[in-house]
Amino acid sequence: MIKKILRLIILINLVLSWEDSEIEYIIYTNSSLFNSASDLSNLHENLVEENFQLKTKIILNDTLSTNINDYIFSNFDFEYDNLKYLCIIGDETIIPPLYYLNTPCDDCISSENINNPNAQLKTGRILASNDNEANTIINNIINYTLSPYDGDWKSKALLFCDDQFKNGQTIRKEKWHTIHSSLIYNNLKDNLNINCLFGPNFDRQQSTDWYTQPNFTNKLIQNINQGAAIINYIGHGTSEFLADEDILTYSDIDLISIDNNKLPVWVVGTCAFGNYINKNCFAERLLKKGDSAIAIISTTGGISYSSNFYFLKKFFIDNINDYLVSDANDRIGDLFYDSKENLFESYTLHLFGDPAMRIQIAKTTNNLIENNTSEILIGSENYISINNTSLSTLRILNNDINTIFNYNYNGEDYSPNDSCFNAQYNLSCLDQLSFNYNNNQLFSGEFYGSTNYTLPLDALEYNNTNLKVHNDLTNSIQSINNIDLEFLDDSLLNDDTGPQIILYQNGIPLSDNSIIYPPYNISINLSDNLPINISGLNYHDIRLWIDDNHNESIILNNFYTPISSTSGNISYIINNELLYSNSHKINLEAWDIVNNSTLVSYNLEIFNNNNNTVYNVYNFPNPFKNETFFTFSLVNASPINVNIDIYNLEGKKVNQITQYLEADNKHFYRIYWDGLDQYLKEIPNGVYIYELEVLQNDIKLHKKIYKLAKSK
């Protein structure tokens, strides 16, 4: 207790040591979140590079004698002082917001007239109701800032949008979601690796009140889970769902799980996505979950089409573009604040996160690639070299796809479900929706310093291609466009063996009659003498389908993560709705670059009990020599207490193991045993039984007896 008090005194003296005129960054919170606030302060004052350090001051609302707005304008002169950033740590239960036009408005805190919001500080709010939530978010920020995970996720952007249909609205109005997303893509595609998931490209399924796009949702979640630097959505929505088609809903957030802190900045301008004065707030849940977002730019109230796109144009086409190609400021608060300038509805746009955080989006460079890349050979080895030996990622991309939809609704062609008629005026519609988006890749692979790579024979239908290399050392990306393609050597055609395919669940290889357990997340390992074909050209896809439903094949090309030039992995979650019965056949097909294919099919038993059921119980190894692991899975992964009582065949207890286990994202738990009895003596060879008891909040979920054996 004394140590905690001393730490508090030291930290208070630290944050109060600066003169107000020197302060650059205010952290405003409650004393209950002081530890988290001090960690964030320490990051910006001491841990980041010296030229990015900020002089900070922590202000506690429960010790402040006046309101924060009055305090700021009484103690700081914005014309002469250094103060630029304000971070609020706390949700509405910790730091209640100010309101403008009945909308939560953090801009009001640093506005001289809160009835006419004009923020003087670049403001962000870390939504947290307790120190554990704040600590999770701030630890993510610290790790993201100081030790970002390797890989080209830092050069990835994901753009997705609502389609052209909405009940009671015209296509002429609704098509702008897609057109604006395509415009952002066209402006950034030379500087980033961009994945476009646009609503018009996904099939619709009729629902009770409208329609849904389940394939869109599945593919979107899989792409999010791969990691990206930034994500943008354009379309309709509320605080609980995106689009009338339920592209992504509040309940889908549980399926989002990004490993290794490869966390994106989300930019979602749809109405009220960030209305955190609501227990089911999408933006709040993403941030608090800890593995879904590093920051979120969103709205706390309604926003018009025009205001949203004005902001997006400034943010992506102007400011992000400027950041990518120059030494422009890379703090998320600066990009956000500058993009809201002169926007009438700026008060509803909020930054949920640390405004002083430097974003990890890769910069554009022109001096990374060393060798001449004016021509790429098809079906023959090509060589690429960069100017350092750190991890790099090479991607060869197809040309863009342009899609055009024509609509001509009049007279007998009229259908209310097509939404082209305006019900109020009964006007017919002649319209066109045209947009660009990226196609699949011809090749991707990681390397150090230099590598050889080979393009698939399918690339013969192209005259040129585009190349991108991301480098971890410099966190930069170089693009070379319109590279000529040539085919000179057909020696690779002597290879006639397709890829080796191995499917796993929870690290266990699958075979005929295996049992798979929810969630139905599988891993796929692909290897070959030649690179794997991920181009998707001429239907040469990595594809998965259930039973004989070829028409509902799931294309996995974009989920392929290379391990080497000739092998890689895929992680995929099979939708529960596809596994509706107790047994199914899972089929997977893959090709190499000279179009040799392999097809594997497994008949699997589907475990689909939706209760808190323990399953897949075994110890490994069994029999064991010196040590073993007691393992099991739990349908709804959560913190649990486990008791294991081990007996010999005479019924005498030889040992007892009691452990508390945190939730495991893979739903898989294991407990180590060294094979010693309760007196730390080695047990003799023989057969034993153990009783496994699993409890959650003192409620018994499972209690059953199993066998194990020791043999040495």
Description:
Among the domains are: 150-332, Rossmann fold (3-Layer(aba) Sandwich), CATH 3.40.50; 375-400 and 438-489, Macroglobulin (MG2) domain (Immunoglobulin-like, Sandwich); 500-606, Immunoglobulin-like (Sandwich); 614-710, Immunoglobulin-like. Strands 8-7-11-14-15-16 form a 6-stranded mixed sheet, sandwiched between helices. Strands 17, 18, 20, 23, 25 and 26 form a 6-stranded mixed sheet that branches. A 5-stranded antiparallel sheet has the order 28-27-30-34-33, with no helix packed on it. Helices cover 17% and strands 34% of the residues. The chain contains 10 helices and 43 strands. Strand 1 (25-29), helix 2 and strand 2 form a beta-alpha-beta unit. Helix 2 (34-47) runs parallel beside helix 4 and helix 9 (305-325) packs across helix 10 (332-339). The protein is α+β, with helices and mostly antiparallel strands.
